[in-house]
Amino acid sequence: MAWGNQTMVTEFILLGLSETWEVKVLLFVFFLLLYTATLFSNILILSAIISDHHLSDSPMLFLLGHLALLDLCLSSFATPRYLFDFVAQHQAISFQGCMAQILFLHLFAGGEMLLLTAMAYDRCVAICHPLRYASLMSRRHCIGLVLASWAGGLLHTSVQMGFTINAPFCGPNRVDNYFCDLPFVIQLACIDTSPLDVMMVTNSGIMSLVCFLAVLLSYALILYTIRSRGPSEGPNKAAYTCTSHLIVVTMYFGPILFMYLRPYTRSMIDKVLSVFYISITPFLNPTIYALKNKEMKAAVRRLLVRRSGQVSVHGHPAIRQSEAATSGS
Length: 329
Prior knowledge:
The protein is mainly α. The protein is built from 13 helices and three strands, in the order βααααβαααβαααααα. It has a single domain (11-297), classed as Rhopdopsin 7-helix transmembrane proteins (Up-down Bundle), CATH 1.20.1070. α1 packs antiparallel against α4, α3 packs antiparallel against α5 (95-128) and α9 (194-228) runs antiparallel to α10 (233-260). The chain starts with 10 loop residues before the first strand and ends with a helix.
């Protein structure tokens, strides 16, 4: 790592996903609606879990609350800036801002990979070893899994940044995406990027591959256990739930594996795939993991009724007159 600090680039130009104005407008509307829905659904899930102590006592829903938090962070580190820059017709991002986007992306994405692995383990224990579930997934163990996910994400992004931030950037500064990420930024360094590519494959690629294989193994054990118990309504429903989980997990890990296990080459498909794990998966996770859960649906319903009740009470004419009289006196 004897590159030295030869960086002369003070800002990068984010080229976005398209150069055509009509496509840009469509993408702006798409990301605005998607981001709004992602914020609403994940905040709703977090509020329901925080306001209902019975939900937070459930290991799966405790982990799900932290997944919603990570989805909020993952969808918010770049998308709001992209929307604002489109309105302001501004494409530049400072060197420090670009490095910050890389740091937060790999912190949140690394943490989410580990948390999804922990959630797959939780389901595996619940179905394959139900009698040991209370001891294996105690509150202390759940907190440990969450802390390990955040610590793993922090370690993961620290390694990436330790290599990237010291690389010299002295020439081209046009990032062929709508946010800064390693595969698109390191190719702009004024050195032979082979060591950086190897680091990227070793760190991001291998980590995501190991987590994905662990998730697949967990769900394979779940499906095998369900099948060995014979046909009935419960196992069939559990198999359907596992299949939907696997689809979303594959949509998250698949693009990451495709991007980070292919050093030295970049293409248009990389930009499209980055949208999946940055925007689409955080939007789908609440629907697949939370809103199909009976306890969660009931808690969300109670939360909405409670909020609407408060609005209707404060909005009632008699209440408003009473509040006005009180404030006047």
